[in-house]
Design brief:
With 523 residues, the protein is an alpha+beta fold. The chain has helices spanning 2-62, 70-86, 91-95, 245-255, 275-287, 370-376, 396-407, 428-433, and strands at residues 98-102, 106-116, 127-134, 144-145, 150-151, 153-156, 162-167, 179-183, 194-195, 200-201, 216-220, 232-237, 266-271, 292-298, 309-319, 336-343, 350-351, 358-359, 387-390, 418-425, 467-477, 506-515. 25% of the residues lie in helices and 24% in strands.
């Protein structure tokens, strides 16, 4: 019996210890579950408070306050506290919560709370701490989305009215620390009038073909001299029909040519002096103040009208009337003289219909917030896959104001040079809904006409002149003094210059992708 009692005692001792261990396991499982529940509950409350606070900030901002005052921030904070309390937390819990207002009207909330435990008290553990937070993503620089959009490729701002674009292939992307255009610009061009039916040849190969602004030149000679002989006096058959003769020539003088002529086109010379029609047509323009004209620069004049000449550019002139008179039977009259007033845009490229500005709230009539959105960032969500409205016009002065604000060190507490720019494409639905944009490739090809009233989804509105967000990239806005890709030394792809500096232009240094196009499927 003695041996049996000892064995029974050992078994009971082991059982007792096992029971304590089992109770400890139960305590651990139960209390850990409660801690997880408490943490999830707190996170839910913090999420709700953050959303409510963010919405309140947007409401105040939309009332005309791009930068919230201390009074505004107190209103937002009180609203956050009330939401926390409605989720079952005490005044003490709400008072201990951190509410942090950051640059670009950004918001972060953090909260900690000690929760009592149950079974773990048997192990002298009375409570545990849970925490929750909502705000900036880890590693976020504080950058905000600005009201600009870019295509996924290299745009080059080649002239006041034209741009070039090289789209990235699947294995190409923005290069870290490389300079890119975030917005196109638009320099002033001297006003030009109608295309007149005279051609001039280049003096040299310079940008203005050798012509000097403010200098008077002969556009049509009489009598003809080299390089116009034989049979040519400087007149052109602009429509190439070789059948209209003097009547078409006269109509083109007084009304201008209404056809489409481009660099590289081949046209025929119009032979003969046509003195009477020349004098009558030019005098008509002089009498009616229609003195601005645009003249094709041609490769040369051949023998009569038998061979075509190539248009190599256009120049602006202002008619003077000097030497313009017609003496019947006189071959030395009907000379047309004019003063060279400047270049026409002779660069090869696509016409800029827009400059990369956007209206990110997708309400076309609400365009007054562009400067504030560019200064402080657009606070409301703009998501991957959304459609977004272009905004027409260069807005060079408002753009310069906003860029200067971001670059000013005195404003560093409000904003940063770092910005997030949506990367966009033109989905096929745009050309289907609006055949005018069938060949549109980038935001710069679109004349903004949509007004979806705040709708962002392609299936909910028949977008015909908008772009789709296919990614986001982070850039550092550059001051003009830091531009490196300036000039007209263009190359294919991501090489060479980005074009001359033009008013309204914005450039930035690429930092990183937030969402790289092609890495996330579009719905």
């Amino acid at each position: 019996m003695t041996k049996l009692n000892k064995r029974l005692g050992s078994v009971l001792a082991i059982a007792a210890l096992s029971g304590i261990a089992f109770i400890g396991v139960i305590a651990m499982v139960t209390d850990v579950g409660f801690v997880y529940y408490s943490q999830a509950k707190l996170q839910t409350a913090v999420n709700a408070a953050w959303k409510a606070g963010f919405d309140k900030m947007i409401q105040i901002k939309n009332d005309g306050k791009p930068v919230l005052t201390s009074v505004d921030l107190d209103v937002v904070k009180q609203h956050i506290i009330e939401v926390i309390k409605t989720n079952g937390y005490s005044d003490e819990d709400a008072a201990s919560m951190e509410v942090i207002f950051e640059r670009n009207n950004r918001l972060t909330i953090r909260s900690k709370k000690r929760v009592g435990l149950f079974f773990a008290r048997a192990l002298d553990i009375d409570s545990a701490e849970v925490a929750a937070g909502r705000g900036n993503m880890p590693g976020d620089s504080g950058a905000g989305i600005i009201p600009l959009a870019i295509p996924h490729g290299v745009a080059k701002d080649v002239s006041p009215t034209k741009y070039r674009y090289d789209a990235f292939d699947n294995n190409e992307k923005f290069a870290v620390s490389q300079e890119y255009l975030l917005k196109l610009g638009e320099d002033d061009l001297k006003s030009s009038g109608d295309i007149a039916p005279w051609g001039i040849v280049a003096i040299n190969n310079g940008e203005t073909f050798g012509y000097v602004v403010g200098t008077e030149y002969i556009l049509k000679q009489s009598p003809a001299t080299d390089p116009l002989s034989p049979g040519n006096f400087g007149c052109l058959d602009l429509d190439g029909s070789q059948g209209g003769g003097a009547n078409d020539y006269y109509d083109w003088i007084i009304n201008g040519y209404d056809g489409n002529l481009n660099i590289g086109d081949l046209i025929y010379p119009q032979t003969g002096n046509i003195a009477g029609k020349t004098v009558d047509g030019v005098q008509y323009r002089l009498d009616n103040g229609m003195i601005n004209i645009r003249i094709p620069v041609v490769s040369g004049f051949g023998n009569g009208s038998s061979s075509q000449v190539e248009i190599i550019g256009f120049l602006n002139f202002r008619l003077t009337g000097h030497g313009l008179e017609n003496v019947k039977g006189g071959s030395d009259k009907a000379t047309v003289r004019a003063i060279f007033t400047g270049m026409v845009d002779n660069e090869v490229g696509k016409l800029k219909k827009s400059f990369g500005r956007t209206d990110p709230d997708n309400i076309a009539t609400n365009t007054s917030q562009y400067v504030d959105n560019l200064k402080y960032g657009f606070s409301a969500p703009v998501d991957f896959g959304n459609m977004i409205l272009p905004e027409n016009g260069n807005a060079s002065q408002p753009t310069a104001e906003a860029v200067d604000f971001r670059l000013d060190p005195a404003n560093s507490e409000l904003v940063t040079r770092t910005v997030i720019v949506p990367i966009t494409d033109v989905p096929s639905e745009i050309g289907i809904n609006n055949p005018e944009n069938l060949n549109a490739e980038t935001i710069y090809d679109l004349d903004a006409k949509d007004n979806p009233g705040g709708i962002y989804n392609l299936g909910d509105y028949a977008f015909g002149s908008s772009v789709r967000i296919i990614g986001f990239a982070e850039f550092e806005i550059l001051p003009e003094s830091d531009y490196t890709r300036v000039g007209k030394n263009y190359d294919s792809g991501d090489a060479g210059d980005l074009g001359p500096v033009q008013p309204g232009q914005v450039r930035g240094r690429f930092l990183r992708y937030i969402i790289e196009p092609g890495t996330v499927p579009l719905n």
